[in-house]
Design goal:
The structure is a homodimer of 491-residue chains. By secondary structure, chain A is mainly α. Among the domains of chain A are: 22-98, no CATH class; 105-339, no CATH class. Helix content of chain A is 72%, strand content 0%. Chain A has helices at 25-44, 53-71, 76-89, 95-98, 105-123, 125-137, 141-156, 162-180, 193-210, 218-229, 235-260, 269-282, 287-304, 306-309, 313-326, 332-336, 339-361, 363-374, 380-393, 401-418, 423-436, 447-453, 459-487. The longest helix of chain A has 29 residues, at 459-487. The model of chain A is unreliable at 4-20 (pLDDT under 50). Chain A binds chain B through residues 4, 10, 12, 74-75, 77-78, 81-82, 84-85, 88-89, 95-96, 99-105, 108, 311-312, 314-315, 318-319, 321-322, 325-326, 332-333, 335-337, 339-340, 342-343, 346, and chain B through 4, 10, 12, 74-75, 77-78, 81-82, 84-85, 88-89, 95-96, 99-105, 108, 311-312, 314-315, 318-319, 321-322, 325-326, 332-333, 335-337, 339-340, 342-343, 346.
Chain lengths: 491, 491
Amino acid sequence: MDEHPPAPNGGTRETAEPGETHSKIGSQLVKWGVVLLSGLSVLLIPTPEGITAKSWRLLAIFVATITGSIVRPLPGGAVVLLGVSAIALTGVLPVRDALSGYADPIVWLVLAAFFMSRGMIKTGLGRRIAFLLIRAIGRHSLGLCYALASTDMLLGTIIPSTGARSGGIVFPIAKSLAEAYDSKPGATAGRLGAFLMPVLYQCDVIVCAMFLTGQASNVLIAKFAQEVTGIELTYSRWALAAVVPAVLSLITVPLLLYRIFPPEVKHTPAAAELAAFELKRMGRMAWGEKMMLIVFALVAGLWMTTAFHGINYAVVALVGICVLLLSGVLTWEDAISERGAWDVFIWYGGLVRMAEALGETGITKRFAETSAGFTSGWKWWTALALLLLVYFYAHYGFASITAHATAMYIQFLTVILAAGAPPYLAVLSLAYFSNLDASLTHYGTTPAPIYFGAGYVTQRRWWLLGLLASLVNIPIWVIFGFTWWKLLKLW
Amino acid sequence: MDEHPPAPNGGTRETAEPGETHSKIGSQLVKWGVVLLSGLSVLLIPTPEGITAKSWRLLAIFVATITGSIVRPLPGGAVVLLGVSAIALTGVLPVRDALSGYADPIVWLVLAAFFMSRGMIKTGLGRRIAFLLIRAIGRHSLGLCYALASTDMLLGTIIPSTGARSGGIVFPIAKSLAEAYDSKPGATAGRLGAFLMPVLYQCDVIVCAMFLTGQASNVLIAKFAQEVTGIELTYSRWALAAVVPAVLSLITVPLLLYRIFPPEVKHTPAAAELAAFELKRMGRMAWGEKMMLIVFALVAGLWMTTAFHGINYAVVALVGICVLLLSGVLTWEDAISERGAWDVFIWYGGLVRMAEALGETGITKRFAETSAGFTSGWKWWTALALLLLVYFYAHYGFASITAHATAMYIQFLTVILAAGAPPYLAVLSLAYFSNLDASLTHYGTTPAPIYFGAGYVTQRRWWLLGLLASLVNIPIWVIFGFTWWKLLKLW
């Protein structure tokens, strides 16, 4: 799940995950056993009163699907398709209803945004943005890092494909800059690459948290939040609430890592020169690049101002795609061969509907009532603090933000709310933590294996840096985030 | 539209169409002009009483989309996506409603069937079927043709991708057999290739007509028929009504062409030997191939027996895909990179909903009432005969069965019904003629440019053969078809 990086070698992210050994049939069988068992164990629990047998079967299939997304006997998209098929075949939902997630505007928003990312790479606009920033502030290795992180942040405003942002734009530039300073995996790693790679990954994780479009499953998280609390995490609301802690994190984390593990090369005038050279070589903006820039500004602008014009997010994204198709920036062939987009489309459309249907059954509500007893007597902030920490560090066990959030977001939110926490506080902190926790490992989310896989840093170092980043991010988002949301009158 | 042939060179069918010149901006502008004009001219007609302004705008967008699918300023899928976006942007339908075709089970049936076609090619089962038939009856060039046409027919029971059937399985075998008899484009074309290529195309057109899964837009035609008459063209009903005239056509057309333009090579023992050799080389069926055969039989069997078990067609297809994914016959990567499937998914899902929504506006009904006046005083069979012929030969102007049927099926059906023709007769004859008319040209439907493009036959000859085939097909389907449907008590 999450997504396939747009690697030209066609390799999928799954292959980079730990314990993924496609060849071993035995391990596959164990995985399927776990998946089936998870569903069966739900079925073995007597259906609670007031819940229909059909609803309970839906829960069983949902649990098995989520388990499948975690243990991965097949790629996440395939597991979800199996879940959707099971729902239709067993008559838990009529087939049209089971498939209705695929007509959900939010799913099409993500699909369209993946198509836009292709345009961003294809036209070179993403590279140009990066080089402009490097030319401006890249004469120092720390500035270089800020330049690339800012590129990532700018792109994150409309591109939820972290694979496209990192793998397609930021990572290749970072790698060529490291090599320009003779920093390669091994003895020379410490010159520049060993600093740049983990820091850029850490910044990407913060960017993921910053926007509704930061990564593909944020829209899913927003759906979950609405399901449980009725709070609509619009594009602008998400970004507004995130901007203060996110910018602080984006400034602090690189600084900290720069202090602790400084690169040997501190001054990087050649980077700025390289950027200037590349910009010269790219020449003036071509027609396609200009169109891409216009679409970029148009889409981001319309998303931020939804409150004024009321045009649906998905319609904005579709119009963006239409302009790119009409202007020839994207060909139809580009769209239909964008594998990553279709992968996300299938798993996301399936999960959205499953979670929604589960909410309609009353099971989620029942769970909330039951869990209220669990935290009774607690102060809400004890429950919030404790459960946020558990939620965060549970990500050591997940290879995907989507899998983690799908498995735990609704449940944790429900329990925290039951303890009496202010709804916005619970919804937002869990949403942002769902992303920030990906900092911990070298498999936390899509770009992790890309940056880690470059080979500049040992796994031990990578995990240490991830842990350090978490120790910075959590206080920043709790202290400054909570304060900021108080100022915004969200609680 | 129709589909992209799965050509390894990544070339799309569009490039093979006449007048498609991507480079000429002028011709593009003219095309867009025509599209816009078609929509505008609807808007300029005063909205009839009782029809809302919104409904009329929907009609304008629909007309522009269909015009766009015909003149093709962009590939068909892109044009439909533009139409869907226009509907959502102008508020003619709420965005979720505009997208709801993408949750339509019939659209997922087609998507799943395209995935299955990949399995058919990948496992080699399609080739094995072809070689088995060639070994059995391929010692004569006419038998060879029947063997390959039978392969096509067998595959047509579940594979609506004519590109996969022809381009992926039948055509490569036909080509290698022609070359095995030293028949290449040019001087030696007449030895075998000049017979085989056009005949196999003609047979494929008949197979297209024979099954609901014969080609991708038959399901769309079935939707249209249900829209107008309420008659449900189920898989088994479609095939049952077609079987008599289709088999007669499949026997007669090759015979006729064999008489008129006989190949120089009449005895082809080497073909049977080659088939035997290839079968030997393929060895026993591998695990994947066996699984594919089981899924093939399972899906076709369940589709034919829907009346007994009531499992939705799409669910059957999804279960087929699940089995292929579970058994590893298809990988997830196979599914998400199946470009042709996604292309069909987008245009089909968009058109299905547009046509449905149009029916809901009452415009279609109004059109029927108006057109009743047009044919008043006619005998119904005069109207049927005349309009069927016009419908059939209008295909000279279309490069796609989908575009033709979308532009004309509902209207012609409505007028024929208004003249008092028996509903089943009108529905079925128009449905089958929508496919059979593709015989006429070298761009009639997806496989046409594949077979024609092999270069064995001049365009003049190709058109002549197409015309001859139509003169055989029309009487067969009218005389034997109508009689057969009478026996089936359909009218």
